[in-house]
Each structure stands twice: as C-alpha cells, then as structure tokens.
Amino acid sequence: MSDREDPPAGGQGERRGLSPEQRRRRARIAAHASWANTPDRAARTAAGTAGFLRRFERQVDPDGVLPVEQRLAMARHARTAYMLQLAERSAARRRRLGASADGG
C-alpha cells in the first residue's frame, strides 16, 4: 500500500482530471441547479445588493453627515452612473473587437 491515500469521492481528486471546459460546465450546472431551488431570489441576493449600495453611500457621503433619504438617493444615482459606465466600456470593447474582426 502506498503512503498516499485516495481522495474522497467528489473531492479535489476528482476535479484534477477535468479539463477547464468540463469544470466550467459542471459549475454552470451547479449554479443553475442552485437557482432552480431558490424560491426567493431577492432574499438570496439581498445582502450582496445592500453591501454594493453601501459602497456608493460611502462614496457620496464619506463622513455620513447627509440625511439617510438624501444619501440613499445620491447613492442610487452613483450606482446607476457606475453601471452605465460599465455598459459603455463593454459597448466600446465590442465595437473595437468587431472592427478588428472585420479587418478594419
């Protein structure tokens, strides 16, 4: 018998032999199965959504001196601006990649 023990089933040892594509496929299957068993999507993502908004609250009111309603409204606008900037960068990247694919 060797000094090495067999890894438990479903553990790290099983994944070592998988290609990156197989790992991605398994991860997608697991993610979809998880969401299929989530009755309240908003509740599942609430903590992350709140944390993301807090980031913008700190950005617009670093000293925490504004009234809550005003800080929240400003934070929501800052979040929307951030998302629009991401969308614009993505569109620019698609345009750039499309131009290079066309040979231009």
Low-confidence spans: none
Q: Percentage of helical residues?
A: over 70%
State the end-to-end distance. Answer: 63 Å
What percent strand?
A: under 5%
Sketch the topology as an H/E string, one letter per element. Answer: HHHH
* Rg from Cα: 23 Å
Descriptive account of the structure:
The mean pLDDT is 88. This protein has 4 helices and no strands. The protein has one domain. Helix 3 packs across helix 4. The protein has 104 residues and is mostly helical.
Gist of the model:
By secondary structure, the chain is mainly alpha-helical.
Secondary structure blueprint with pairings:
Elements: H1 12-16, H2 20-36, H3 41-60, H4 68-101
Key terms:
about 100 residues
